[in-house]
Amino acid sequence: MTDGVDPLRVEEVSVSFGGLRALDDVSLRVPAGGIIGLIGPNGAGKTTLFNAVTGAVDPVRGAVWLFGQDVTRWAPHNRARLGVGRTFQRLELFGSLTVKENLVVAAESHAGRGGLLSDLLALPASIETRAAAEERATAVLAELGLDGHADAVAGELPTGLSRLVELGRALCTEPRLLLLDEPSSGLRAQESRKLADYLRDTRERRGTSALVVEHDMAFVLGLCDYVYVLDFGRLLAEGTPAEIRRDPAVQAAYLGEDTETHAGSAAGG
Ligand SMILES: Nc1ncnc2c1ncn2[C@@H]1O[C@H](COP(=O)(O)OP(=O)(O)O)[C@@H](O)[C@H]1O
Ligand SMILES: [Mg+2]
Q1: Host H or E run for residue 27
Q2: From the alpha carbon of 40, which atom of ligand 1 is closest?
Q3: Are residues 207 and 251 both part of a single domain?
Q4: Most CB atoms closer than 10 Å: which of 3, 113, 142, 209?
Q5: CB of 56 within 8 A of CB of 229?
Q6: Residues 49 and 37: beta-carbon distance below 8 Å
Q7: Which residue in 187, 170, 191, 188 sits closest to 179, CA to CA?
């Protein structure tokens, strides 16, 4: 899983908001085919790190590399074009559209890239784009077991299904790297396990790498190959799930007495 160029490298990145140092000298790496976790309490800087990777915020120091290119000064849409898909901590589906329409829009925006000429001319090529987008959306719906919900109005879905639709929308852009911000937030344990299965399947099928930001320890420790722990904008620890579980600093800071129980159930599930 370590062959090929790293989808993501974050090197000594610091981000400031006025006087607040939201990230302080943070380095991490997502190897090809890796599913990597980033955990830490609220306000630790997890979403800010995602934003530094996508280009939504500019670091005051450090560098971001995507697929072997230094993108630190690149605009967000150019970074996305390299094959980076993300989901948001707060769901951002089009509430009045159906599930399938949400996916088709995402697939179309992806297919539209590089098709600038046909876009400008509004030629029949756009009909092909629409057909390809529909096909892609249908395939992703099937992969995520959402076929039965294709015509449901997205805004009326329960959280568990909404999270899957968000993942589906990201998958419609055929990402090589997925950035997932608290994907299991609001999910029941069984739904979280299903989501973890889909993420593993996606890696198997497409070789998609992922950086998963989570609050939910059990989810991350059960899913990820390697885990980074953020605390007040600094890396507190990194290691395999087993190492993180044992790390006294991590236990003291976050996991408390629940560590064994949660970790045990995650490993068992
Ligand atoms: N756009 C912003 N402007 C000012 N402060 C921000 C902004 N975004 C995040 N912060 C602050 O940066 C810190 C890290 O936030 P965030 O990255 O959202 O943490 P997490 O995702 O780990 O909960 C928090 O103190 C938060 O209030
Ligand atoms: Mg966050």
Answers
A1: strand 20-30
A2: 22
A3: yes
A4: 209
A5: no
A6: no
A7: 170
Q: Which residue minimizes the CA distance to atom 2 of ligand 1? A: 17
Q: Which atom of ligand 1 is nearest to the CA of 18?
A: 4
pLDDT tens digits, 21-34:
999 999 999 999 99
Q: What is the Å distance from ligand 1's center to 48 Cα?
A: 6
pTM, 2 dp: 0.86
Ligand 1 contact, 43 CB (< 6 A): yes
CB 17 within 8 A of CB 51: no
Residue 134: C-alpha distances to residues 83, 114, 128 (Å): 20, 18, 10
Q: Report if residue 88 sits inside a domain.
A: no
Instruction: Give the percent of the chain with pLDDT over 90.
Output: 59
Q: Range of 267's domain?
A: 1-83+175-269
